[in-house]
Amino acid sequence: MKAIWRLTRRKADMISLANGDPHFTLYPIRKLEFEVASVEDGVLDPVSSWRGAGASAPSQSFTTTTHSGTLPLKAAMQYSAGAGLPDTQRVVTDLTNFYHSPPDHVVTLTLGNGDGVSKCFRLLGEPGDHFLTDEFSFSSLTNAPLSHGINWVPVKIDNGGLVPEELERILSNWNEEQQGRRPHVLYTVPCGQNPTGCTLSVERRRKIYALAQRFDFIIIEDDPYYYLQYDADGNEGETFKFMPSFLSIDVDGRVMRVDSLSKVMAPGMRLGWITSSALFHDHLVTLVDSSTHHPHAFGQVFLTEMLSSSGWNISGFDRWVRSLRKEYQRRRDYFLRTFYQEVSRTGLASANAPEAGMFVWMKVHIDKHPRYRSDVQHTNGSKAKTNVEELMEELFERILDGGVVVMPASIFVAPSDLNKFDSDDPIQDRLNFLRLTFAGQEETMQPALARLAQVLKEFFADTK
Amino acid sequence: MKAIWRLTRRKADMISLANGDPHFTLYPIRKLEFEVASVEDGVLDPVSSWRGAGASAPSQSFTTTTHSGTLPLKAAMQYSAGAGLPDTQRVVTDLTNFYHSPPDHVVTLTLGNGDGVSKCFRLLGEPGDHFLTDEFSFSSLTNAPLSHGINWVPVKIDNGGLVPEELERILSNWNEEQQGRRPHVLYTVPCGQNPTGCTLSVERRRKIYALAQRFDFIIIEDDPYYYLQYDADGNEGETFKFMPSFLSIDVDGRVMRVDSLSKVMAPGMRLGWITSSALFHDHLVTLVDSSTHHPHAFGQVFLTEMLSSSGWNISGFDRWVRSLRKEYQRRRDYFLRTFYQEVSRTGLASANAPEAGMFVWMKVHIDKHPRYRSDVQHTNGSKAKTNVEELMEELFERILDGGVVVMPASIFVAPSDLNKFDSDDPIQDRLNFLRLTFAGQEETMQPALARLAQVLKEFFADTK
What we know:
The structure is a homodimer.
Chain A: H1 2-7, E1 15-16, E2 29-37, H2 46-53, E3 59-65, H3 73-76, H4 86-100, E4 106-110, H5 113-124, E5 130-134, H6 139-142, E6 151-155, E7 157-158, E8 161-162, H7 164-172, H8 176-179, E9 185-188, H9 202-215, E10 218-222, E11 255-260, E12 272-276, H10 278-289, H11 297-306, H12 313-342, E13 349-350, E14 359-364, H13 388-401, E15 404-405, E16 407-408, E17 433-437, H14 445-460
Parallel strand pairs in A: 5-6, 5-9, 9-10, 10-11
Antiparallel strand pairs in A: 2-3, 4-12, 7-8, 11-12, 13-14, 14-17, 16-17
Helix pairs in contact in A: 4-11, 7-9, 12-14
């Protein structure tokens, strides 16, 4: 059918009786107006001006009508291409070039991060394939390809995120006869990883990319927290340098970068994009055409106007995200100060300052618990040597009873056939972590952490 | 993770440190305004008032802000449920009840028709399964489940659409030992079927539903043209009765109805819904959660305001679609009058008036062509007895050269292992149809049909 649409250009005065496209005069909508935060030069810190001042905060508006605007409704509301409307692709390409200057890549619009990542999985995997990922990862995404027959190979992480040497060890020792085709895909979140909050250093990124070249695997770089990177002293402000992405160092076209606006605009946007080689782009579009079809017009209109001179422009977007980065850094610092005062002081838990994202990965010093055991023989076939899993389940329940909701490490364990990998050091013995966020309301952080500390003290005293 | 979210309700003063949800004060958008066609009582024929009067056409506006509106941005722009925001589900449920009064069903929002249908396919099919469908169907949808290993079983259609007796014959004769599991899914477009324009009569619908009960199959009712049903004399207007849908007669919960706004609002909306049993709904939500995630906020805000008292309300929507129905009926009638004058008069082609939708299925009287043969022995393994396929390819090329784009029947053949089904009456011998649309610009219909007639005359004279 697409081939036929192309044929419509054969002659200059071709008339089409081919498609069931409603005429734009029959769309019942003719004007769309958005009022957004101002990022004008005069506004020094756009995010704090915006959130502090409520209805009186400086704003700017843009309007799209049937025939006017950067992306008029006449074009936006019609059936369109799976990769997105050309104007929207253009602004998103400009944005990607601004931050990553990829050598030779094409953007494909998505319906947000979950859609983008699951389309990459779908595109790259055949039933029976193995994909690599961080041993703790965001389960709603790693669960996605299971029904398609993908198996996960968890890679160990430390405070600095995925450990390149562990990756190398897995791939070097891979036995295709016993284990099937060697993993050809690594899925990773390089900044403020969910749930551990880790950020890969430039050095680790280069090492991992070199391994990708050596073992010929593709890197799915899922980077929703890219713009929420923090500096050491909190003072770098406008000159802050964002960490180079995998995309920016990709000379082979082996990186598929998934971008999202959920964390820097709003989750309801449900519009993001994948940046990849032209080859993967073509396949992605085919996949879009047989599943979700083209992205929604309202979001594409918003994004196109927003990133054009009618809205923020890319320079304004950059001012917004830099201001937002500082706002989240302030929240992180406030959260950590409170955490140190309330929780670390008990000596029963600790946490590192995350360099990006929204999460603190709290380590519970579970070996101090009076009922901790390291010589357990499980009857259910588990290779775990400790009772960490049981104790952490108990702690989680007690924290809930204490009036705080946290996320236990157990729900982030990458789903895999655990007996196949690292049975000498099973992840069940390393579940003594809780994911906490500093993205929520600041007013509740202190009481929440005080409750958490109280529960820890009672739990480790084995009372209540 | 969902189970944990539910636990947040355990205590009244629970504090959450669980989710990475940006606070609504950090969304850079605070106001969204839409200007839409007026459907006030004073406007007798909303569609013709709207399209005729341009910028001076009567309109109405609605505004949503962070805290005001039927669905305020504070709630709409956050992460939400896969089934859609509760307010949006509510208006869509009201709309479905208004037209179909289903006995016991639940709605799940989709990202438009393609997404809805392909999610149904994905939910209901396992690799190796057979699904039933109209022998000519919309290829971009029937291609979707092929990569998941679904096989299509084409069911013959006549002027009245899918033939119940053919369906019964296929199912009665099904041999599970030779052919695998008997088809448990029928995918069909009951109104203005794409590409044939056929509409199933009430009687056929009841027969097909009875077969579904007897052979225990599920009906995927894909009904984008439901609101574009036409009456015989064009005078019924406001009292026109829409045909009862499969959903409205579904007592068993075996119908999954896919609704779309592309044809009655605009294709760029990319928001629709599936109405199904609660059981299928639960599975659909799981599928949404591991693929596209929740639907986009801008569309949900628009639809919620539009179908509430802030916008059209359901009564206004009904006035719009009834007016739109008349508008398309006028176009259909104009198109057909021109077709009869220009094309039918040649005696080389004919067409029936479609009772719904946007398409005319033009039959080419190919057996009148001097090079038509009905005793062909193909060397490529085809069981076709005629050279219809070759002649129609030639005609299609000539029509393009003549400056008109149409859709050939060949691209709508349901993809299947043709040798398996009806090898005595292969569809290749019945490809003498072209799909024409009357949805496009009226000004070009007459010249297009005149050109088409001219090409037909030359082709059948075997000249040029």
